[in-house]
Structure formats: C-alpha cells, structure tokens
Amino acid sequence: MTEASKKLRRLGLAAVFVLAASGAAAQLQEFSTGQRNLACGSPAATGDGWPIATPESVGLDGPRLCGIAARLVATNANVHAVVIVRHGKLVFEQYFPGYDEPWGLGGGRHDFDSATKHDMRSVSKSVISLLVGIAIDRELIKSVDEPVVKFFPDYSAVKSPGWDKITLRHLLTMSSGIKWDENRAWKDPENDEPHLGSEADPYRYVLSKPIAAPPDTVWTYNGGGTDLLGNIIERVTGQSLEAFAREALFAPLGISDWEWMKYRNEHVASAVGLRLRPRDAAKIGQLVLNKGEWAGRRIVSSKWIEQSVTPRFQAIGYFGGLFYYGQHWWMGRTLSGEHDAKWIAAMGLGGQRLFIVPELDLVVITTSGLYGSGRQGHAALDILANFIIPHVRDRNEAR
DSSP characters for 169-231? Predict the structure, then answer.
C-alpha cells in the first residue's frame, strides 16, 4: 500500500468514526428533546399510585443514572423505556424513540412516553402465574398438583397417552414433558408456537401433543402450557381472562390502561399478549418484591410468591442455560464488583425485562425492540451491573 493510499484510508476511517459519533450524538439529542421528562429521568407524578422520590433519597446515584441514555446510544440498544423503583418509590424513568413491532401493527419507528403501552411478550407468562395463584387462594383451584386434564373433560378423546400425569405445577415449571419446540424459525412448520395463533382450536392442538419425557424431569420452554393455564382460569372463574385479570390483579394495583391481545383465531394470547405501560409493569415487580402486597393490600398470598420464585429447574438451552426457572419466573444473579446480587425476573422477547432484586429492595424494568437479536436483554443487565448495583449507598439498610 502506498503512503498516499494509507493516508486516504486513514482519512476514510476518520470520516466513518466522525459520522458514527455525530449520528450517535444526534440520536442522543433526539432522545433528550423527545422525552416528556427532560430532567434526566425525573419521574412524573401522574396519580397512578406511585410515590415519587429522587434517586439520592433512596440511596441511588442520580448523576450515574443520568449516564444510562448515552450508554444505550453507544451500544445501539434500542431500549424504549427504563423505569427504576427503590424502597417502594418511583425514582427514575426515561423513554426513547426507536424501532418496535407492536402487536398487529408491523415494524417501524415509534415514540414512547410514560403513557405509552408496550408489548410485554412473555412477561405475560409471569402475570399468568400470579393469576393462577389468586385462583388457588380463592379455592377456585385446589392446588398446583391438580391434573391438567381434569379441567378439560371435553378434550378427553384427543389427549395423548401420558397426559393424565401432567399437573398444573408441571405447566408452570415447564417440566410437563410435552413434545414441544419453540426454538425454530417462525415459519418452520415444526415450530409449535405459531400454531397457538393459527389453529382454530389451540387447546386441542396442545392437548394432542405427544409426551416426550416423564413429567418433572426435563425443562422445555413451552408457551402452549401457559395458554392452557389461561384457559383453565377462564373455566374455573366463569369469566374471560381479561375480566378476571382486571378484577383480581390490575384494578387492585391501580392499573387501568392495559390490553391482553388475541391471536387471529380470536383466542386470548395468554403467554405473550399482555400490553402494559412500563411504570405499571413495575407495579407487578413491586407486588412480588412485597410478597403479594401492594399499598398495604394483600392481592396474592405470600406462600404463592415464595413457591413461584423458588428455583425448580436449570433453564438449559434457553438464554444459554445461565438462569433458573420457578413457576413462570426466572432467577439469576448479577456480579458487579464485589457485589453478587440475586434477582427474580420476568422476561419477554425483544428485551422486555422486569428485574426484582430483593436484597436491594429494587425493581427495574426495560422495554425494547430487539426482536430476533442475540443482544436482547443485555441493556437491562448492563444497567443493573454498571449503573445501579455498585452505586447503592444504603446497601446495609436494604432488605
């Protein structure tokens, strides 16, 4: 390579870096000016039940949290919301425009603020777990050890051999042993998940699946089991899933603006269809952190919460097998410097992440649009490990 060509190459690379930097700066400027809350994540008091406080008043580092937006730009995270709650108070929220694929609307650029509902995707599964717990608390379901087929006598002729041994607990812990595969391309006919929306009778489809392993022996991610649980709730309550969720969970939490979407076959998408505002999703996290209470009111029993967030299986083959799985809740840990913090989480496709850190009395939620990306969820872990956990000032006073 000649000296002249080397010089041109250096100039070209410099131009690329300048363009990249200016693009990131422009995006950050857009984030800043497009937000409803321009004071670096200061949450708005909207009368939705959240007490509002400053990060410093709850032992967090406000200036450090102000660096989150720049990190999201630098990592091309396409995060749409960051909401942080500590000691039961909403202390930080920021919203960013970006690519998203809202249910039924297709992909495109969207703006977000504190009033915008976001697809929760598989965070819905964790909410179904709470609803099952409430139904058990009300004695509408005897226990998680009830056989699934008991609730579907109208499908007795189609159930595969071995279904009699599968209980609600097996569906909740994804250890039913059903032959099920969601880890394929969406258009692959062997992918079971699309059938939940395309089959005229998705419950028949799930109940007719063969049993590949004895229950309670193999963990396999399975949204079909969650859809069965959603329908069981409807059968035992005599209400639609939406009606029961509204009365038993969302209304007590002061959540009024939400949707539970339906598949094109008009069956409610129990496993993936919930849409919430991020600050309302944070209430779900606070409810679990408070062992089933919100604002002094018991909504679900502490026993159910304890059962749900007790690790039951290593989630082998999903998220690299790094996490544990309970009853539709994930468990893991974040190492940040010398601090090793255990957390509970609800997770959804695209980077929807709800983290609960009991020992720090902390709830963090992010929403995102990284569907199909191997980086989805990285931003939430980055925020925990580098912007929150190492900078907690009242660690010894937390739970």
Answer: HHHHTT-S-B-----S-TT-TT-STTHHHHSSSHHHHHHTSPB-S-TTS-----HHHHHHHHH
Burial bucket for residue 359 (CB in 10 Å: 0-12, 13-18, 19+): middle
Give me the mean pLDDT over the 144-165 stretch: 96
CA pair distance 41, 162, nearest whole angstrom = 53
Q: Give DSSP secondary structure letters for 43-93.
A: PP--SSS--B--TGGGT--HHHHTTHHHHHHHTT--EEEEEEEETTEEEEE
Considering Cα of 49, then 53, then 55, then 60, what sign does the dihedral take? negative
On the 0-12 / 13-18 / 19+ scale of CB atoms within 10 A, 118 is buried
The pTM assigned to this predicted structure is 0.91
Per residue in 314-334, pLDDT (tens digit) is 998 877 788 999 999 999 999
Token readout for 131 is 């609803």
- 333, β-bridge pairs: 342
Return the structure tokens found at 73: 């730009």
The CA-based diameter of the chain, rounded to the nearest angstrom, is 82
pLDDT in tens, 265-282: 999 999 999 999 999 999
Residues 280/253, Cβ–Cβ less than 8 Å: yes
